[in-house]
Write a structure and sequence with these properties.
Layout: E1 2-3, E2 8-9, E3 13-15, E4 25-31, E5 39-48, E6 51-60, E7 65-72, E8 80-87, E9 90-95, H1 104-116, E10 124-130, E11 139-143, E12 153-159, E13 164-169, E14 174-180, E15 187-194, E16 198-204, E17 211-216, H2 219-225, E18 240-246, E19 252-259, E20 269-273, E21 278-282, E22 289-293
Length: about 300
């Protein structure tokens, strides 16, 4: 947790979960309860070796504790990348592949998909609705994105009080803006924004209706960095950037941040603080995050 006033970082202690439980966290989303502004809830993709899952934590503002609440599992949550919460027991997720890499056969199939893909039918957006009882394992999940909508669905963000879902595609280099059916949660394409660069996660800029989108301007450098030889090579440089999608201009993209790789290469997540004029950004394989002054 970072205090944008002081730039002080606080490491959170995780409580309420057995130490033997795998926590290999990926995409996250924060849900703020309308009736209690002293607490937030954190949804996170968890690449548990026992199976993919979405885990839910609670956090009391001002504390240094993240408390485990519950876990959601379903066969449709198979290769989750991002999660966008609609309530404490319902959410959207993106599956970025068709095949999960666990086990000998699945690993072979996944390697074939990585080599011959991506295929538009292999990636989708799923909506899940679970029992409100944390002790219950009852959950229903279904695909809600149109057929062949995404070769590689990535980041996801709910805006407009849940009426709009925005989904990034790292292969298409797009942000798809979906209308969410209030009853069925089926997604209908409203607009597809061409970004000009591969896209990862996205976030709402507080106090505005604009969206911050993390991008990879140099895909070749990204692939090289993520290869086995360079995964932990922090001296390897590759361009990183953040776009601002301006809602007043129908989500027209403009550049908010760019780095030649000197500060960070694989920039996969960012939060913008317009009050203090800062952006906080990190990467899935980076050993640190950055805090930069920006003109918001």
């Amino acid at each position: 947790m970072v205090d944008s006033k002081t730039d002080k970082a606080t490491k959170l202690k995780i409580e309420g979960i057995d130490s033997s439980h795998d926590l290999i966290l990926h995409g996250i989303d924060i849900l703020v309860p309308k009736d209690d502004d002293s607490k937030i809830y954190l949804f996170a993709v968890n690449h548990d070796r026992k199976g993919e899952a979405i885990v839910l934590f609670s956090h009391t503002i001002g504390s240094d504790v993240l408390t485990y609440v519950r876990e959601f599992k379903h066969p449709a949550i198979k290769t989750p990348n991002a999660v966008a919460a609609t309530s404490l027991s319902s959410f959207f997720i993106t599956n970025d592949h068709y095949f999960y890499g666990g086990g000998p056969l699945a690993t072979i199939l996944r390697s074939h998909e990585d080599h011959w893909g991506p295929w538009k039918w292999a990636s989708d957006v799923v909506y899940c609705n679970a029992s409100s009882d944390p002790s219950s394992h009852e959950i229903d999940c279904k695909t809600v994105s149109p057929p062949n909508a995404h070769p590689s669905a990535n980041g996801a963000l709910l805006v407009d009080d849940g009426k709009t879902l925005m989904v990034n595609d790292v292969v298409e280099a797009t942000t798809t803006i979906y209308d969410v059916d209030p009853e069925t949660k089926t997604l209908t394409v409203r607009k597809k924004v061409q970004l000009g660069a591969a896209a990862d996660n996205l976030s709402l800029i507080p106090g505005t209706d604009d969206i911050a989108v993390c991008i990879f301007p140099d895909v070749l450098a990204l692939k090289t960095r993520l290869s086995g030889d360079h995964l932990l090579d922090y001296g390897f440089k590759g361009e990183a950037g953040i776009l601002r999608l301006v809602k007043a201009r129908d989500y027209e993209p403009e550049l908010l941040y760019w780095d030649d790789g000197s500060l960070i290469t694989v920039l996969t997540g960012a939060a913008v603080d317009p009050v203090h004029g800062k952006v906080i950004a990190g990467g899935v394989v980076e050993r640190y995050f950055i805090v930069c002054d920006v003109d918001v």
